[in-house]
């Protein structure tokens, strides 16, 4: 068997990327995603594409934020690993899979082929997440009416709230940031992401109890693919009252009022309380995501 040939594509040969089968429905899942041709790479064996990857970032980014489309033909795990290892960008890998993929033998085999290639390339699984998509035909979630929501222009208020929220978080990405740089880093990464989103800063809101005490924050957002629940967080001293649902309902109403034709959202599979809130608010699970991180140098 000949060694695979790794190629970075450009506008002239970008069609090569589309010559592989798509058993996991990645094309449909990325129908609103814009991938740059020169951020696409393929592995060829005897002229046939046996692995492919599309790295992604915002329109103004000079380097990719993540790799969110990665396919490997069955039996070509080494070629897939070579594609990842040789890439100039060592960023998070997102594998987006159909909901319930474990229950379908064909989907499970296809998924595990990609997992094996990622692990061979030195990527470690960080977390599995549930992906949601609300549409207006599902109806707006009921607002409990227990909290008052106000815009807050001071980033320091959100930074402080994020530090407090992440001090008892279940979120795997936040826990990783805390491990690497403490609560300040976790809070700053969140703020950096919200500022990176093209949605207006004026959308960010703080929720208050009837007594005027802050209860939490919600951040309606648009990422480059469309409207999304940017962040839902209840302050530690206000937990146990079900306020996360209030925040989610308000965030959904806010985006709907801006004309959103859909709202995307996600939570870690292990975050059972938040998953229950999405269910209560009428958000169906549409896909599942596994986030892999490249191994840190020296680890």
Automatic annotation (TrEMBL):
Matching SUPFAM superfamilies: Acyl-CoA N-acyltransferases (Nat)
Residues of the N-acetyltransferase domain: 163-299
A Pfam family it matches: Acetyltransf_1
InterPro entries referenced in this protein's UniProt entry, alphabetically: Acyl_CoA_acyltransferase, GNAT_dom
Protein's name in the database: GNAT family N-acetyltransferase
């Amino acid at each position: 068997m000949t060694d695979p040939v790794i190629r970075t594509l450009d506008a002239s040969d970008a069609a090569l990327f589309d010559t592989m089968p798509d058993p996991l429905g990645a094309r449909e899942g990325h129908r609103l995603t814009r991938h740059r041709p020169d951020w696409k790479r393929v592995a060829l064996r005897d002229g046939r594409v046996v692995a492919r990857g599309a790295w992604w970032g915002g329109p103004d980014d000079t380097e990719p934020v993540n790799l969110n489309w990665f396919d490997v033909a069955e039996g070509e795990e080494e070629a897939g690993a070579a594609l990842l290892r040789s890439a100039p960008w060592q960023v998070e890998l997102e594998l987006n899979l159909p909901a319930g993929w474990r229950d379908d033998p064909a989907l499970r085999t296809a998924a595990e082929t990609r997992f094996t290639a990622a692990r061979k390339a030195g990527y470690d699984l960080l977390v599995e997440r549930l992906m949601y998509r609300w549409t207006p035909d599902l109806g707006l979630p009921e607002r409990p009416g227990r909290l008052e929501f106000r815009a807050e222009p001071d980033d320091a208020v959100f930074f402080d709230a994020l530090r407090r929220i992440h001090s008892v978080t279940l979120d795997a990405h936040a826990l990783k940031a805390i491990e690497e740089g403490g609560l300040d880093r976790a809070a700053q990464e969140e703020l950096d992401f919200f500022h990176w989103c093209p949605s207006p800063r004026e959308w960010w809101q703080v929720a208050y109890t009837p007594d005027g005490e802050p209860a939490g924050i919600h951040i309606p957002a648009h990422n480059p693919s469309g409207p999304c629940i940017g962040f839902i967080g209840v302050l530690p001293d206000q937990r146990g009252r079900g306020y996360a649902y209030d925040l989610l309902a308000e965030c959904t109403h806010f985006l709907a009022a801006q004309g959103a034709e859909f709202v995307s959202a996600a939570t870690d599979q292990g975050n059972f309380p938040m998953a229950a809130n999405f269910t209560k608010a009428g958000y169906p699970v549409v896909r599942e995501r596994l986030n892999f991180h490249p191994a840190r140098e020296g680890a």
